[in-house]
Amino acid sequence: MIPLARKTLAHEWRRFLPAMLAVAFSGLLLLMQAALVFGILAVATIPREEEPQISVPMVDIMVQANGLTAADAAEQVTKPLEEIVKGINGVEHVYSQTQDDRVMVTARFFTGTSEDDAILRVQAKLRANYDRIPKGIPEPLIVARGINDVAIDESERRIFGPRPESERGAAIPLH
């Protein structure tokens, strides 16, 4: 019986083609329906938050290095400060920027670290290692930043072009 069915199917495949395509298509539709049902269940059961509170604290350490060129400030202030900051527990990355008369080191902590805890760690570590910073350098200014402090104005400028003079805010000096 099976050899006869094979022979019939092999010779008369054009007659059975619409039925085979219909069965294959209905199988595909059943698979798509199952995927849709599982997707709806996943959306309904997975917890979500409308405004998730992600804490990625960053601490800026700004130092006035009056009278030092950028190269001297990098060697005398930036490098020791980076080493001190890298030794703080929970610091993920350390960034630095050195200019004439000015140094800024930024410590980025791991996600989930408390902002207050990050500031306290930086202050404690700097106080404990203040002897490694050259004499005559004033005490650093420590400023906390978070993930919400990202400048949006620059992205707006890149997308929409510069704003007219009437819409601009007051200039804030960087010094």
Task: Provide a concise account of the structure shown.
The protein has 175 residues and is of the alpha+beta class.
- Average pLDDT confidence is 81
Secondary-structure element pattern, one letter each: HHEHEEHEH
Number of helices: 5
Structural class: alpha+beta
Question: Considering DSSP H and I runs of 4 or more, what fraction of the residues is helical?
Answer: 40-55%
| C-alpha termini separation | 94 Å
Strand order of the largest sheet: 2-3-1-4
Gyration radius, rounded = 32 Å
Q: Low-confidence parts, pLDDT < 50 over ≥5 residues?
A: 166-175
Content of β-strand: 15-25%
What layout of secondary structure does this protein have?
Elements lengths: L1 H10 L1 H33 L12 E7 L5 H17 L4 E9 L2 E8 L5 H14 L12 E5 L7 H8 L15
Antiparallel strand pairs: 1-3, 1-4, 2-3
Textual characterization of the structure:
The protein is an alpha+beta fold. The chain folds into two domains: 44 residues; 109 residues, Multidrug efflux transporter AcrB pore domain (Alpha-Beta Plaits). The chain has five helices and four strands. Strands 2-3-1-4 form a four-stranded antiparallel β-sheet, covered by helices on one side. The C terminus is likely disordered.
How would you describe this structure in keywords?
single chain; 175 residues; alpha+beta; Alpha-Beta Plaits; 2 domains; 4-stranded antiparallel beta sheet; 4 strands
